[in-house]
Amino acid sequence: MVEQHGDLEDMTKSTTLPNDYRSVESIVAMENVSPNTFGAAGRIANGLLSLYRAGDQRKSKFYKQATASVSTLVKGGSTQYRCTFRSAEFYLTAAEAAVELGDMENARHYLTALMKKRYNSAIYSTYEAQILAMDQDARRQEIYNERFRELAFEGHRWFDLRRTTRPELTKTYEGTSYVLQKDDSRYTLRIPTAAIQANPNLASE
Description:
By secondary structure, the protein is of the alpha+beta class. It has helices at residues 36-41, 46-49, 57-62, 87-100, 104-115, 121-133, 136-151, 157-163, 193-198, and strands spanning 26-28, 63-65, 71-73, 85-86, 169-173, 176-180.
């Protein structure tokens, strides 16, 4: 797919966000993951914001700092940000597949090709050097981090966590904390009862 549709939005120059349906990255634009109400009501977690490093254009262009402690979403909340498939996702998929196969050169190639379009040129060479120095495990984690930074609020995060590290997650709502344990069975969604009733040969175990 990268060879057939390899265009990337250059965020150091372009004012068009990469998940905009008019972006050069757009392949299919159907899903509206973040509806209009989320643009004003949503709050960006500090854990996500902290992953964006110096010189990364995405932090200031994907999000808006509303107050000293609150940031809101810019890359969603409008139908212009409908996005199903775009080329940046395939660069990251290709990088991840390469690192799992031990093909460190292609893992570097696909990852840095995307990074070059996201980081200011003055700092990019520093991050590129860090990528070159990484072993397989560190490079794999860096690809995971880039997926989080790049594809946030596009409907990928839950599925990425399920197929990779399945970490412990804690959410607090109205003073009560809810914990999903690491490798919790709830990372795997049950087959719906209606589907099993329609086809008893399906197993929900």
